[in-house]
Amino acid sequence: MTRARGRRNGSGAGAGGEAVGWAAVEAAVPEFAALVRERFGLHRHHVLATLRKDGAPRLTGLEADFRYGELWLGMMAGSRKVQDLRRDPRFGLHVNPGGGTDLAGGDVRVSGRAVEVSDPGLTARYAAAVQPPEPFHLFRALLTEVARTSVEAPFMKLEVWRPGRPLRTMRRTSEDPEVLEVLEVLEG
Q: What is the pLDDT of residues 79-109, one digit of tens each?
């Protein structure tokens, strides 16, 4: 199991948050992990968020791959996202929503830190299995949060897992008092 402690200096996972490899997610919440992995598997390309040098977000397309108990992020050599992650490894990855607006399978996202793989043997093993365009950079995702939003009529259901915590499930509707109060302020 891959684990790391986040740091507050901008290179960590957040305010001291623990970051774990994909195998730890599967061990802690197997049914939830299966739903997340299945949702990622529906499409090849997803949306990666990194931080630019000035701190602004950068959104780019990315192929994510689950293999060997890890979530891998492969990138073209010299890409801006590689530069971003080398400078600040924090990332967010949003599953491709696909066509339509029904959230079939849920809306999934993960976040954490990307660790560049420097082991040539591991990179070669990955390349032999996946056959990406070469040269490429390979990063392993250490996760601080895995989230899934879905519709469970009449509710919007949000499931969030963080290392060391149980899976948290929240259900709400647009009729919830807190939401109505915000709408009244915005419309008033």
A: 999 999 999 999 999 998 877 666 667 899 9
Dihedral pair phi/psi, residue 6, rounded to 5°: -75, 160
Indicate the burial class of 168 (C-beta count within 10 angstroms; 0-12, 13-18, 19 or more). Answer: exposed
CB 105 within 8 A of CB 39: yes
pTM of the predicted model as reported, rounded to 2 decimal places = 0.83
Give Cα separations from 68 to 96, 134, 168 (angstroms). Answer: 22, 21, 27
**Which token pair is 84?**
């971003």
Say whether the peptide bond before residue 135 is cis (omega within 30 degrees of 0): yes
Q: Helix H segments across the chain?
A: 22-28, 30-41, 80-87, 120-130, 177-187
